[in-house]
């Protein structure tokens, strides 16, 4: 976003902190001092994108190279898109605000088929031509990567190249290749041919696709000699790749707002519905000692209070118990909680549960996937009913009171009896909670239609029709209610659209463009999704969606992705499909025989596991946590909040300061209870968009460390962005009243000069309006805030309004119980402005006056 104009419209959008930079650990490089710049784009909101581990990995990998720059861009929400379009401004990156079209390389994360229209929106707003064939020599190279890269054909026309597989080494190689090619003056076609020689890089324009009369693919013809297909890029060993533990810490709360450390990549369980289980093979575990090192560095560099151990199946990590004991032993004193987001049934041992609940105990998720043992055998989900019931019984016995059960409908060979088994199994799980002695337990059932994916044994199978999906979800909705079970479901229409694109071909690109032109974006959000528009699109484009979703493929059919290779042999997938129909299991090659899937060469590529980890570190002294019962001291701090960080909400400011406290090693005290909270309090929330020269904050510390006030200020300022600055700290008695109880008044400077443009309000009018307001102000006035009517006593709250110069006012507001009017609201009443116009007025809070005590 352009820094010269963003102030004109940032107050008009929701969550403006999404669009400001300067987050902790973000990297800004001078474009003139690097060889090339890479715009890394995530086709969803900032909160979603910053929760994605791959964004952090690639961002740090590129920026670790001195003469390469990586900047981030996220999809603007609808209100921001409207502002950009209305002002003729391009979508730019957070770090520099440069338009996407100004970068040499623009990359998109292909996480979800329903993000395709959002990708087009970002390209269009960023000044990037949508069709790769129309881009010229000065246009950026557009690259994609992620899970969707394993069938990118529906969006192939929009991308110059696509990376299949592991990206942390490949992305640097690609950036350096583009930099060299640009320096040499290579033409665009030559650059694409060079990229095609990079392992894992697919250049769609170097393949021509032809079709038969029945709509199936006739042939995929290579157009470059020696380039007959693309094999996925492999990272043989996670431990050999540099792991950088300085992830960007968002101001806005991300969906997954925690430190994420990948402990393993790949899975060998062989679930037949799971694309990631096939395309991420082989299993590569990260060495436990390195995991501990990365957690320690990451916590010190971020101030996070939560750690997530990432893997496709975290409980299958060979040394998970000693690793978790090590993590909890080292960091529980700092009140660090640990989440294991993908625990398979049967992998939550008593040891794991005991360690996890030391800090926090929330709901637990199990994924039976299918209701009956017969159907679980079909999908190679080797979980018996007894496993499920024993697992739930153990979870309830260990203190959890809520369990979520995840199922799919429409799995191959599924019958209505299998759907009925979902209800029975969920009810039996609920009964296990009662048997564990719990009077109140909650069992939530979550269901979604199965979408067959490329590179799985079910890639030839039909998806159930939309009508069948609706019928089965309706049955579950009705019967879970009767059994007093919670129920959430994924919209059947969204699953249908996902199925169309999941196994689609290049002919779908016209539908994606048409849908975008009809206003579609954020299709992955249920409240934004419009099935009606997509139905119109398919009709107008003459596309029969059932051809892609609910049609069975034959063994000899050429599939749209057959010229791409994830490493798993097509023959293996077909044979496994046949075994599924017989209900036969395939073993886990981690603990059993090799299944000859084709991925491993057993030299460079093989399963990497760590069995004998027992080196448990000594418990560390607490850095930022306090044991209850320690002697407490109370500190009153004064700070200023200015510049772009004025757009932080109160909660965002609080989170930013709290994490700075943790990084500074200050031993903050916590409340007692089930979810202890740090003892930090503010005088008053500062409205979003307002600067302040004087804010107050109280926090309690333990006596541990014996910090002086000056040391506290110095430590905090060293950990905070320059727009938040602590000025003083004072020790005060614990028994003094809270800041909110001693608030007396607040003083402001109102800058009107650039805020009343076009309203025909001059200095004389301002003076007359202020005088009339002070003479005739009503005792009570009504105004609107967030769509609700509010009533305040103006005589009580507005102490003074005075004119500083012709377009500058002084305003003093008294604090009062109940509804307090804000300075922008006073200006709206004063000049009869709509709230949107008033929000653009620049206001500086100069003083917070506290009552003497």
Describe this structure in words.
The chain has 853 residues and is an alpha/beta fold. It has four domains: 6-231, Rossmann fold, CATH 3.40.50.2300; 363-496 and 563-583, Transcription Regulator spoIIAA (2-Layer Sandwich); 632-741, Pseudouridine synthase I, catalytic domain, N-terminal subdomain (Alpha-Beta Plaits), CATH 3.30.70; 743-850. Helices cover 30% and strands 19% of the residues. It contains 25 helices and 29 strands. Strands 20, 21, 22, 23, 24, 27, 28 and 29 form an eight-stranded mixed sheet that branches. A six-stranded mixed sheet has the order 2-1-3-4-5-6. α13 links the parallel β16 (402-409) and β17 (442-449). It is globular, with a radius of gyration of 29 Å. 44% of the residues are buried. The model has no long low-confidence stretch (mean pLDDT 92). InterPro entries: CHP03960_rSAM, DUF2344, Elp3/MiaA/NifB-like_rSAM, Radical_SAM_N2, rSAM, rSAM_horseshoe, rSAM_sf. GO terms for molecular function: catalytic activity; iron-sulfur cluster binding.
In short:
This protein has 853 residues and is of the alpha/beta class. 30% of the residues lie in helices and 19% in strands. Strands 20, 21, 22, 23, 24, 27, 28 and 29 form an 8-stranded mixed β-sheet that branches. Strands 2-1-3-4-5-6 form a 6-stranded mixed β-sheet.
Strand and helix layout:
Blueprint (H helix, E strand, L loop, with lengths): L35 E7 L3 H4 L3 H11 L4 E7 L3 H10 L17 E5 L6 H10 L15 E5 L15 E3 L6 H14 L4 H9 L4 E2 L4 E5 L5 E6 L7 E2 L27 E4 L1 E2 L9 H5 L4 E2 L2 H15 L3 E5 L9 H12 L5 E3 L10 H7 L7 E6 L3 H6 L6 H13 L4 E8 L6 H20 L6 E8 L16 H17 L3 E4 L2 H11 L6 H9 L13 H11 L3 H4 L15 E2 L4 H12 L50 E10 L8 H14 L16 E3 L8 E12 L6 H11 L4 E9 L10 E9 L11 H14 L3 E6 L2 E6 H4 E8 L2 E7 L8 H9 L3 H4 L3 E9 L3
Parallel strand pairs: 1-2, 1-3, 3-4, 4-5, 9-19, 10-13, 13-14, 15-16, 16-17, 17-18, 22-29
Antiparallel strand pairs: 5-6, 7-8, 11-12, 20-22, 20-23, 21-22, 24-28, 24-29, 25-26, 27-28
Helix pairs in contact: 4-16, 5-6, 8-9, 8-20, 9-10, 12-13, 13-14, 14-15, 16-17, 20-21
